[in-house]
Amino acid sequence: MILSKVSDLIGHTPILGIPVPIRNSMLLLKIEKNNPGGSMKDRMARSMVMAALESGRLKRPHGVIVESSSGNTGIGLTLAAIEFGLRFIAVVDHHAAPDKIEVMRALGAEIRYVEGQYGEDEVAVVERQRLAAELAVQVPGAMFMNQSDNPANPDGYAGFVREAIEQTHGRVDAYVGCVGTGGSMAGIARGLKQHDARTTVIGVEPAGSIIFGQPGHPYYQSGTGTPKGDTVGLVVDHTTIDQGVQVTDAQAFETARFMARRTGLLVGGSTGGAIYKALEFIHSGVISGNVLVPVADGGEKYLHTVFNEEWLRERKLLDPRVTANLTRWLN
After folding, report:
1. For residue 297, is it left (φ>0), alpha (ψ between -120 and 50) or beta?
2. Lesser CB count within 10 Å: N end or C end of the chain?
3. Is residue 152 packed enough to be buried (19+ CB in 10 Å), middle (13-18) or exposed (0-12)?
């Protein structure tokens, strides 16, 4: 089959099954990093742009998309801007992986950095969103996508659900995924529970995020969670999440490194966190059977951080106990 545009490459991502013999379960990794922009956010980015065009809030050919992003949503929006002949302004901070920013720039996005003094592990989401909203007012024909409150965000994951149900022959016993804006979790959890109400859904946020009511503090995991001082997005749907849990930076990053050495699959740091909690819950007997986890993005974007041992050591993010647990759980 010969496709006609890059957006035709979105979706239809494969699933890699990893047996968990001791618990007679299967960890199913849906390889969302195979989307053209390298993450599952391609799905929702195109969904939001299409909804804005259909409603008339965004007009062609001179419409301007403005969004606050740590990178993956921005890359997806850049692809959509190319497809529909739009301009895209990405508002970023120092917390975004440099490689993600360079990908956006290479694809033609305009990059605006927020100003202010922030710690290395401090996410400037509040200032990013303030600046994005301000630019949307100042720039003619512009629209602030506001992914955290945009209903077209979760709607963009309908294809993920259809694919997963078909690929597993209708059996997804549990779903474990990261919660950031909440769009992927809401869209996927609703769809899976509509298919089978018995599916257990576990939401994972970084330790330090405030989505599930825990005290906020800085963290290094990129593109996931809601930092202290920000407001949890309207698209977060707690009614679809059976249990909300936290994962530490060390657990997330050590798991990503373990998966690379064990399977040859490079996954991003937040995906490492979701895999760690999935295996922990499988081992404890909380979930079993087919356990689905999305590989939200690839580790190729984090070679200078998550996969750099010196960077991890300087920040005290190395923890051999994580590798010991993973080895035992996947024995």
Report:
1. beta
2. N
3. buried
Taking alpha carbons only, the member of 225, 228, 236, 230 closest to residue 269 is 225
CB 199 within 8 A of CB 175: yes
HSE-up of 42 (CA within 13 Å, CB side)?
A: 26
Token representation of residue 272: 């490492």
Bridge partners (DSSP) of residue 113 are 92
Q: What is the CA radius of gyration of the chain?
A: 19
Of 331, 269, 252, 282, nearest to 175 by C-alpha is 282
Backbone angles phi, psi at 137, to 5 degrees: -80, -40
Main-chain phi, psi angles of 25, to 5 degrees:
-130, 170
Residue from 70, 216, 229 nearest 147 by CA: 70
What residues are paired with 290 via a beta bridge?
A: 26
Residue 11's Cα: distance from chain center in Å?
15
What are the 10-residue block averages of pLDDT along the chain, 331 residues in total?
Answer: 95 98 95 98 98 96 93 96 97 83 95 82 81 95 96 97 98 97 97 98 98 95 91 94 98 98 97 98 97 97 95 97 97 84
